[in-house]
Design goal:
Layout (H helix, E strand, L loop, with lengths): L18 H10 L9 H4 L7 E4 L22 E6 L1 H12 L7
């Protein structure tokens, strides 16, 4: 979607290399505690998706590691995991219904 709508969607991937490192960052490191809702605070699986406040300030070529780990201060809203992300994409791509 970011290729089709570069002015509306920006994907910033943070690659942690493996599941153990991802969980260390998300759960043990406490990143998920910065989400406002209960589902976000309990999230344990990959992927975890959220909307950022300032995606333009993030280098989309960055990947993994602590030097370019996501900034919790940038969290706008927790979206969810795989299924929630696909649902959001379907909603985003659904054409507007014609008016009366």
């Amino acid at each position: 979607l970011s290729l089709l709508f570069p002015n509306r969607v920006k994907l910033v991937e943070h690659d942690f290399g493996d599941r153990t490192k991802f969980r260390e960052w998300l759960v043990d490191g406490g990143f998920r505690n910065h989400f406002d809702d209960k589902a976000g605070k309990e999230h344990v699986a990959c992927p975890v998706v959220w909307f950022g406040k300032n995606a333009a300030a993030v280098d989309s070529s960055s990947s993994g590691g602590t030097s370019n780990a996501p900034d919790p201060a940038d969290i706008e809203k927790y979206l969810g995991g795989h299924d929630a992300t696909l649902d959001w994409c379907r909603d985003f791509m659904q054409p507007a219904k014609p008016g009366p």
